[in-house]
Amino acid sequence: MRSGEARDVTITLVTGANRGIGLEVCRQLAERGHEVLLGARDPDAAARAAKEAGATPVRLDVTSAADVERVAAEIGRLDVLVNNAAITYDTWQRPSTADLDVVRDAAETNLYGPWRLTQALLPALRRSAHGRIVNVSSEAASLAGMGAGTPAYTASKVALNALTRMFAAELRADGILVNVVCPGWVATDMGGPGGRPVADGAASVVWAATLPDGGPTGGFFRDGHPLPW
């Protein structure tokens, strides 16, 4: 992995990026000239996906403190962090009968993973003149229209939304923009068939990853438009 010391190149790390939205985000950012670090738990999957996207593979399980510490030690400067890794779209559960072990497992990846990684990479992000953090969430986590479905996934994403607001408030003085994005219902392994094209969902994330200085921070967006919390 490169240290990212060259100041004329935007260094971007995308987690959970060996397929679906994450892979397409890597592809789109690489096309824009970013040096993309493609993170995935399986090193072979990371290598295959990185070759496809024009990125550098990074073995990274966001639930592993050892992985996070290793990656943070190897990155000298980071301009953009996209916390995309997520699990457990638990359509079979309802809150009254939910398996709380499933809820805890979802939170490890969907909340504590981004939290742990962001903490570890803040020194590298602070070395950037244009730091950006994008947390990939879902409109399912909007309190305004919330229903009873997918309780593990939804609760973890609600917490991720709150974490976004807190980091945005803390890092505003550093010029680091922190936003949360809903890609929409996208035709991926998690979303299932029938959703919109992966490229469209990824473009929503790329929009937040490439905001200009002075852009919004602490917001919840889809396709560049605000969503209700």
TrEMBL record:
Belongs to the short-chain dehydrogenases/reductases (SDR) family. Pfam families: adh_short. The keyword Kinase does not apply. The lineage of its organism: Bacteria, Bacillati, Actinomycetota, Actinomycetes, Streptosporangiales. One of its GO terms (molecular function) is oxidoreductase activity. SUPFAM superfamilies: NAD(P)-binding Rossmann-fold domains. This is SDR family NAD(P)-dependent oxidoreductase. InterPro entries: NAD(P)-bd_dom_sf, Sc_DH/Rdtase_CS, SDR_fam. Keywords: NADP, Oxidoreductase.
